[in-house]
Design goal:
The chain has three domains: about 5-150, no CATH class; about 160-245 and about 350-380, D-Maltodextrin-Binding Protein, domain 2 (3-Layer(aba) Sandwich), CATH 3.40.190.10; about 250-345, Periplasmic binding protein-like II (D-Maltodextrin-Binding Protein, domain 2). Helices cover about 35% and strands about 20% of the residues. The protein has 15 helices and 21 strands. The two termini are about 35 Å apart. The relative contact order is 0.11.
Length: about 400
């Protein structure tokens, strides 16, 4: 089955006819029994009324919504009603699934006997695909076509997903030196991707000043970066970014006692106001662009800045609406008076090298699935983040 068409259309048939199984054998080339023909007729009729694709279990006539479909080599290039019966027969003798797709190039309907793997068994599905001369496998829940030769296949082969993260951005990505573990919203997003790939997720330290260089490094340091990375046109010029999975925007963190002082960005941009930022990221860029009268102090460790504000080492921290609520909740000395009036509006996403199209597509499909099934909203709620989708 050609990869470019395989993703267009899959459907599955599970047969429960014991008499057919008794009449057929793997090497039998006798005429196809009427019971198989009747199944083929029904499948053919269904395919003609579903030109855009469908998934079908003929035992229940329900459409399965999960699994990884991989075609058998034995029925490769079978097409049209005249060859559908042979495909059904092969499926009855094997796994009971048939995949089909309409080829717009030659206006023929193609069918394959297929095997369905659980979605947490991508490595096994890819191995089976290679054994059967396929070019891709298809993930039903996300409608993703995964090529057997690409970034995902390389990750699965090495059994490890390498993820770059700064580990200094509560509650999105933080490295706890006491437990030697990373935790946070972005960390769980990365682990969810690794779980779907069926591999171990290993986190690689990076920093805001070196983030772009680390993403583009050769040989690669990691497969993608995650954790508080805002989607920007500048980043997309030289790198690739996923769809957004978290709304974001610039705001301030100050001492609770100073809440009445700051009603706008103009109140921050005053002589005598000390603004602290971490180096190399968008917070420093924003401060230098918009604050021409305040004093800007660059501190190397982002996670230390809130406590420095609380103890009076500076007056303002330029931060994000994703980060500020965490510190306000955990330190009564701090406040975020402009939290509902962010200075900018954007989204956070996954950052990676260009040219990893299969990995980028799969991540986007996972994000879309998490939005539709409610799991992304639940993850927002776990970390006290505002859900905007």
């Amino acid at each position: 089955m050609k990869a470019k068409h395989f993703s267009k259309l899959l459907f599955f048939v599970a047969c429960f006819c014991a008499s057919t199984l008794a009449a057929c054998s793997k090497d039998n080339i006798a005429p196809i029994p009427d019971s198989v023909e009747s199944i083929a007729d029904r499948v053919w009729a269904y395919s003609q009324s579903h030109p855009d694709g469908f998934t079908l279990n003929i035992h229940t006539w329900a459409e399965p919504s999960t699994g990884i479909a991989v075609s058998y080599a034995a029925t490769q290039n079978s097409h049209s009603r005249s060859q559908l019966g042979a495909v059904v027969r092969h499926a009855l003798l094997h796994d009971g699934y048939v995949g089909g797709w309409f080829n717009t190039d030659d206006s023929l309907y193609y069918f394959d006997s297929s095997r369905l793997f659980p979605e947490d068994s991508l490595p096994a599905a890819l191995r089976f695909g290679k054994e059967n001369g396929q070019s891709s496998v298809f993930v039903l829940s996300t409608y993703t076509d995964i090529p057997l030769n690409g970034t995902i296949a390389e990750i699965v082969e090495r059994d490890t997903l390498y993820v770059g993260t700064t580990g200094d951005y509560r509650p999105l990505s933080f490295y706890d030196s006491l437990t030697s573990q990373y935790w946070g919203f972005g960390i769980e997003m990365a682990q969810a991707i690794g779980h779907r790939l069926g591999v171990t997720t290993t986190f690689v330290p990076t920093s805001w000043p070196t983030l772009s260089a680390d993403v583009l490094a050769q040989p690669p340091l990691f497969d993608f970066a995650i954790g508080g990375i805002t989607i920007t046109a500048a980043r997309q010029e030289s790198m690739a970014m996923s769809e957004g999975y978290l709304a974001n925007g610039k705001t301030i963190l100050c001492r609770s006692a100073d809440t009445a002082r700051f009603h706008s960005l103009a109140d921050v941009d005053q002589p005598g106001v000390r603004v602290m930022v971490n180096p190399g990221g968008l917070n420093e860029q924003f401060a230098r662009q918009h604050l021409t009268h305040a004093t800007i102090i660059v501190h190397p460790r982002n996670e230390e800045i809130p406590s420095l504000i609380a103890t009076g080492m500076a007056d303002i921290m330029i931060t994000e609406i994703t980060e500020a609520p965490y510190y306000v909740q955990h330190d009564s000395r701090l406040a975020a008076p402009l939290l509902d009036q962010p200075f900018t509006h954007g989204e956070i996403g996954v950052l990676m090298r260009q040219g990893q199209d299969d990995l980028l597509q799969y991540i986007n499909d996972i994000i879309a699935k998490m939005k539709s099934d409610g799991s992304l909203r639940r993850l927002h709620e776990k970390y006290g983040l505002s859900y905007k989708y």
